[in-house]
TrEMBL record:
Superkingdom, natural source: Eukaryota
Membrane-spanning parts: none
Presence of keyword Chloroplast: no
Organism: Acanthochromis polyacanthus
An individual GO BP term: protein folding
Protein name: Thioredoxin domain-containing protein
Signal peptide: 1-15
Amino acid sequence: MSLLWLLLAPSAAEAGLYTASDQILLLSPGNVEAALINSTAAMVVEFYASWCGHCIAFSPVYKSLARDIKEWKPAVNLAAIDCAAEDNRKVCAAYRIRGYPTIKVTNSALPTHPLLDSNRWNRFLSSL
């Protein structure tokens, strides 16, 4: 591997784990409010760190899920945000992300607009 390639290739933190072609909405400080608060779709959001081994291992599963449910749009949408990117850290802190990966589900049609972490969501589903 040449040194020039290593210098020109983006780092994992710069590149993230997903691209727009993965059928996953890439969140940033500029679009998070419109995507999560002003959207009528139910949003499944992965908060990840591009350096995180568990996140890297989970990314093919999340990409596969995005492909499997693409017909569900616009009712359900998948999104992701790289909390390792400097620009995204305030967003991740605002959503109280303390570990990676974290999956949260939101639906602005709910009266209180809660963001449910995966444990709370699973407890809710098992109570039905």
